[in-house]
Specification:
The chain is of the alpha/beta class. The protein is 27% helix and 21% strand. Strands 1-3-2-4-5-6-7-10-11 form a nine-stranded mixed sheet. Strands 12-13-14-15 form a four-stranded parallel sheet, with helices on both faces. A two-stranded antiparallel sheet has the order 8-9.
Length: 343
């Protein structure tokens, strides 16, 4: 892990807040030979110092302490790196000299990393993730403005106590709500069900609502070295039970179902999942739809089958919460349902 200090040249720099920028790679740190054709770009090859140098306006916003935590394409995000990030964030925020943190990240798994940190970071200082849909070498690269806005949010007193945030395309999102909704657009991230928390533009930060679900200091979860095996399976026309049976045989401890509609599950898949519950596997119903909530079906289904409703969490965020709940020793549908209702 490389550490450097990016010192503003403007006068009165000592009065500015100090923001730690933790770089992990991703498209924001990507590069391609052709600025007009980025189809073959390589993610994570541009270092954090170069990212910061591309945004001279940062000097009027904050003093920057930069660290290169990783240089990966975020499709390859690993649980061990999540642990490293959470521990590093907590260590930095315990330092009175650090006022907030910005994490640069790839877009592919940003929503999962953000929600993981939302549940495991134990400070009220701002933690803001940002990313880009275009590599740094592209025409009209979106990374520099997203980075400037993320640092602006992290340096704002209004961001304290708001949980982990995502600053992207001038909007500020709650880590629990945000999801990637486009493969190419610069407004690829949306909080589809209830909208963004606020916005950031031209140095101004405004929050129009707060996250109501418990987060950060109000959760019992922490990053750890030992993780249970939790996987995601999908329900679709003609699906079979093969995947569930294979996972149970491999020793899976939790399964999240990307169900159709309101978390509905194909009959053959449901039978396999019911048998998995009988063997001690936790089963959570989510939906592949992209917005809305999965209603708990009560005694008619979930209670009888031992399933848990993911509420408004998509399958991949539901997996994050189930990972942490099982790692914390939680078990049984009732206890897990309370966790999904709370966080």
């Amino acid at each position: 892990m490389n550490t450097s200090t990016h010192t503003p040249s403007a006068g009165g720099a000592s009065a500015l807040p100090c923001i730690a920028v933790l770089a992990t790679g991703g498209t924001i740190a990507g590069s391609a030979p052709d600025a007009a054709n980025t189809s073959g770009y390589q993610a994570g090859v541009v270092g954090v110092a170069q990212l910061l140098d591309a945004v001279p306006a940062l000097s009027s916003v904050a003093r920057i302490q930069a660290e290169q935590v990783a240089s990966i394409d975020s499709k390859d995000m690993a649980l061990s790196l999540w642990t490293t990030l959470a521990e590093r964030v907590d260590t930095l925020l315990a330092d009175d000299a650090i006022d907030g943190i910005v994490i640069t990240h790839g877009t592919d798994t940003l929503e999962e990393t953000a929600y993981f940190l939302q549940l495991t970071v134990k400070h009220t200082k701002p933690v803001v993730l940002t990313a880009a849909m275009r590599p740094s070498s592209a025409l009209s690269a979106d990374g520099p403005l997203n980075l400037l806005n993320a640092v602006t949010v992290a340096a704002s007193r209004a961001a304290h106590g708001q949980g982990v945030l995502v600053a992207f395309n001038n909007r500020i999102h709650c880590a629990r709500d945000i999801a990637k909704t486009s493969t190419y657009a610069v407004d690829a991230f949306q909080s589809a069900e209830i909208g963004a928390l606020g916005w950031v533009q031209d140095g101004r930060v405004e929050f129009q609502r707060r996250a109501l679900r418990a987060h950060t200091v109000a959760t019992p979860f922490k990053a750890g070295a030992a993780w249970p095996m939790v996987e995601v399976v999908a329900s679709y026309a003609g699906t079979s039970r093969v995947a569930v049976d294979a996972l149970v045989a491999a020793g899976v401890q939790g399964i999240v179902v990307a169900g159709t509609g309101n978390g509905s599950i194909h009959a053959s898949l449901q039978q396999a999942l019911t048998e998995a519950v009988a063997k001690g596997v936790a089963v959570v119903r989510s939906s592949r739809v992209g917005s809305g909530h999965v209603m708990r079906n009560g005694a008619a289904a979930d209670d009888a089958l031992g399933f848990v409703s993911a509420d408004t969490l998509n399958p991949y965020k539901a997996r994050v919460l189930l990972l942490l709940a099982l790692a914390a020793g939680q078990s049984g549908a009732a206890a897990l349902q309370h966790t999904f209702d709370t966080y």
